[in-house]
Amino acid sequence: MVVSVDEKCLRLTDDRGERGVLLGMRCRQCGVYVFGPATFCQSCTSSDLEAVELAQQGTLFSFTIVRVPPPGWPGQVPYVLGEVELPEGPHVLAEVIDCDHGDLRVGMSVALALQPVEMEGVANSERVVYKWRSG
Ligand SMILES: [Zn+2]
Q1: Burial 24-52 (b: 16+ CB within 10 A, else e)
Q2: What spacing in Å lies between the alpha carbon of 101 and ligand 1's midpoint?
């Protein structure tokens, strides 16, 4: 049984946690998209929103190399935190994996990558998280 790290942002579409879609909302009044849950539009304040699935690919908008991770960070250090712009407009922050730091370029194409992550020493804590990889 695999579980999404956040059901409102990532819906798994297979039972191995290898495929999934990012979720967002689209404003029916002005057409602006947001990533994740929302109760009103950040652009026009309308509450007439519909749930949508967002693209699997985006472009790297900015990134930083994190050398001091947040408490409990289960991955490698240093790691790359990327801000990715989706074709629909929203920006999504997540780790960029499988990429030499020297190869990172603003504007490069990245694709959604799902990974199971377990908190060290915590039973049944595995969650599937979303990341980006070059491609
Ligand atoms: Zn709107």
Answers
A1: bbbbeeeebbbbeebeebeeeeeeebeee
A2: 37
101 vs 21: CA distance, rounded Å: 26
Q: How far is the CA of 30 from the centre of ligand 1 (A)?
A: 4
Beta strands 127-134; 91-97: pairing state: parallel
Confidence at 30, pLDDT banded by 50, 70, 90: very high
> What pTM does this model have?
0.91
19 CA distance to ligand 1 middle (Å): 30
Amino acid sitting at position 17: G
Cross-strand partners of 82? 63, 94
Distance CA(111)–CA(38), nearest Å, equals 24
| Cα-to-centroid distance, 52 and ligand 1 (Å) | 14
Cα 46 to the center of its chain, rounded Å? 25
